[in-house]
Amino acid sequence: MSILLSAGFALMGAGIGAGIVAIGAGLGIGRIGGQAMEAIARQPEAAGKIQGAMLIIAALIEVVSLFAAVICLLIALNIAGIS
C-alpha cells in the first residue's frame, strides 16, 4: 500500500511539475513579447535588433521548458514502470 501511495505521489508530482513548466514558459514568453513591443514602440528604428533578440530568447525558453517537461514525463513513465 505504501509503495502504491508513493508511486501515486511521484506521478502527481511529475504532472504538477510539467504544468508549472508550461505556465512558467508561457509567462516568460508573454513578458518577452510585451516588453519587445514596448521597446519597438519607443524606438522603431531598432525593431530588427529587438525582434532578433526576442526570438533567440524565446527559443531558449522553449528549449529549457521542453527539456523540463520531458524530464517530468520520463519520471512519470519510470515510476509507472512503462520504460
Summarize this structure as a short list of keywords or feature phrases:
single chain; 83 residues; mainly alpha; F1FO ATP Synthase; 2 helices; 90% helix; ion transport; ATP_synth_csu_bac/chlpt; ATP synthesis
Write the layout of secondary structure elements.
Layout lengths: L1 H41 L4 H34 L3
Structural commentary:
It is a single chain. The protein is mainly alpha-helical. The chain has a single domain, classed as Up-down Bundle (F1FO ATP Synthase). The chain has two helices and no strands. The chain starts with a helix and ends with a helix. It is found in: Cell membrane; Membrane. It is a multi-pass membrane protein.
Give a brief rundown of this model.
Its main location: membrane. With 83 residues, the protein is mostly helical. Helices cover 90% and strands 0% of the residues.
Structural category:
mainly alpha
The level 1 CATH classification is Mainly Alpha
User: How far apart lie the N and C ends?
Assistant: 22 Å
Report helical residue fraction. Answer: over 70%
The largest sheet is: none
SSE order, as H and E?
HH
CATH topology, what is it called? F1FO ATP Synthase
**Low-pLDDT segments, ≥5 res:** none
* Average pLDDT level: 90
Shape: rod-shaped
* Domain tally: 1
Q: Report the radius of gyration as a whole number of Å.
A: 19 Å
Q: If classified by CATH, what would the architecture be?
A: Up-down Bundle
What proportion strand? under 5%
The total of beta strands comes to 0
Count of helical regions: 2
Family: Belongs to the ATPase C chain family.
Protein name: ATP synthase subunit c
Main location: membrane
Site (Reversibly protonated during proton transport): 62
